[in-house]
Amino acid sequence: MRSAWGRIVHWLEANAPASAQALCGPATDGDIASLHEALGLDVPDALEALLRMNNGSTAKDTKQVLSSGRVLPVRHPDAALFPAGMVLLGCAEIAEQYAKWRRSEEEHGIEGYWGASWVPVVQDFEGQYYGFAVDASGASSGFPVLEYGEGSLPGEASPSLGTLLDTFADALQRGRWDGWPARVERGSLRWGEE
C-alpha cells in the first residue's frame, strides 16, 4: 500500500504539482483516535497507514457561509486525484460519510445497503453517488475494497487498498483508467470521460 501511494504522490509531484498541493498532511494520533471512535471499530492497518501519509486530498477546499449561517464545504477541483473525479477522504470526511451511509441504510430499511464494517475511503467529487470503501470486518482474506454507486449495493472491487491504489498509479502512468483519460492542465490533474 505504501509503495502504491508513493507512486501516486511521486507522479503528482512530477507531473501535476498543483494537484499534489491538494494533499493534506499526515493524520495525527488524535485524528485516528477520533475516526476509531466515530466508526466504532478498528481502523484497518492499511487505511491507517494511508491516512498517516496523507489525511485526504482536500487541502485546497474552502467553506462558504450562507446567509442562514449554514456552512457548506466548497470542493477545489484539485482534490479530484482519482479517475471519475474521485477524492481521497481524510479522517473527518470518512467519519462524516460513514455516518451518512449508515443513516441511509436505517432510513431506507434496506439490509446490506451499507454494512457497519464498510469504511468509505475514496468518493466522488460531490460526495453523493459513488466511490470505494474498505471492508473492515477483519475477514481472513484481509480487508477487501468495495465499489459502490448510486442505486446499487456495494460489491467487491479489489482484494486490498494497496491493490486498488496500484491500479490508480498504473492509470496515471498510462494516462487512462477504464474510459477516463487523464490530462494535466496548468499543473492540475483532470480526468475526463471518453
UniProtKB/TrEMBL annotation:
Domain Knr4/Smi1-like, residue spans: 26-174
Species of provenance: Streptomyces nodosus
SUPFAM superfamilies: SMI1/KNR4-like (SSF160631)
InterPro entries with a match to the protein in the record: Knr4/Smi1-like_dom, Knr4/Smi1-like_sf, KNR4/SMI1_regulator
Organism placement in taxonomy: Bacteria, Bacillati, Actinomycetota, Actinomycetes, Kitasatosporales
Gene Ontology CC: mating projection tip
Descriptive protein name: Molybdenum cofactor biosysnthesis protein MoeA
